[in-house]
Amino acid sequence: MILIVGLGNTGAEYKNTRHNIGFITVDRLSERYKLSWQHKSKFNADVAIGDCELGRVILCKPNTFMNLSAQAVQPIMSFYKIPLENIIVIHDDLDLSLAKIKYKIGGGAGGHNGLKSLDKTIGANYHRIRVGIGRPIDRRHDVADYVLGKLSNVEADEIAHKIELLADKLPLLCSGEIEKFKTQIG
Fold first, then answer.
1. Which of 64, 118, 144, 179 registers the highest number of CB atoms within 10 A of its CB?
2. Mean pLDDT of 164-173
3. What is the pLDDT of residue 86?
4. Catalytic one among 19, 91, 112, 127?
5. 84 pairs with which residues across the strands?
6. Closest CA relative to residue 89, chosen from 75, 71, 70
7. What is the 3-state secondary structure (H, E, C) of 4-34?
8. Structurally, how many domains does the chain consist of?
């Protein structure tokens, strides 16, 4: 079983913000694989579970705020006995240009509060898919406001295009073809 976690914040005010790239991505995966979302309060998350070309999969959108993401992920891991190496976390990254996608296993949190929460609670050696949101052009712009700001139509379209590419190539990662996956998403 594979657990794919999209990081984001719940609530209408955070919909379509840069910080919710993870939610946007797993929403697209649920559409593609026809997996229905269910609210699971015992996990503090919305989950979509089923079989698809990725194998047996659980999609997860934590219902906690970003800095408490592990409160949703850890109970799912425990309940379904999912090992760390079967967890894929999709999140925004300020240090990547808009819609650039990078993959790695483990590493530091880079100031990302969702990753800090996960690293502290479940360990750091899970699969990470970083989706670039870029930095504000005006360096005086508050980074927190930028991250929590809404995607423009142009940004949303560019990210949607890359999410489709990611969705096309995700079966490679899930089947263990990591180098091929990394090459084809870059």
1. 118
2. 96
3. 97
4. 19
5. none
6. 70
7. EEECCCCCHHHCCEHHHHHHHHHHHHHHHCC
8. 1
- C-beta separation of 39 from 46 below 8 A: yes
- Tens digit of each residue's pLDDT (9 = 90 or more) over 11-53: 999 999 999 999 999 999 999 999 999 998 889 999 999 999 9
> What is the model's pTM?
0.96
The DSSP code sequence of the chain is -EEEEE----SGGGTTBGGGHHHHHHHHHHHHTT---EEEGGGTEEEEEEEETTEEEEEEEESS-GGGTHHHHHHHHHHHT--GGGEEEEEEETTS-TT-EEEEES---TT-HHHHHHHHHH-S-SEEEEEE----SSTTS-HHHHHTSBPPHHHHHHHHHHHHHHHHHHHHHHTT-HHHHHHHH-
Domain containing 119 — which CATH number? 3.40.50.1470
Residue 19 annotated in active site: yes
| CB-based contact 54:101 (threshold 8 Å) | no
* DSSP state for residue 93 in the 8-state scheme: E
Strands 127-132 and 55-62 turn out to be unpaired
The residue among 5, 130, 115 whose CA lies nearest residue 58 is: 5
Helix ranges (H only) for 1-138 are 21-32, 70-80, 113-122
Query: Amino acid letter at 143?
Result: V
pLDDT of residue 142: 87
What is the average pLDDT value for the chain, to the nearest integer? 95
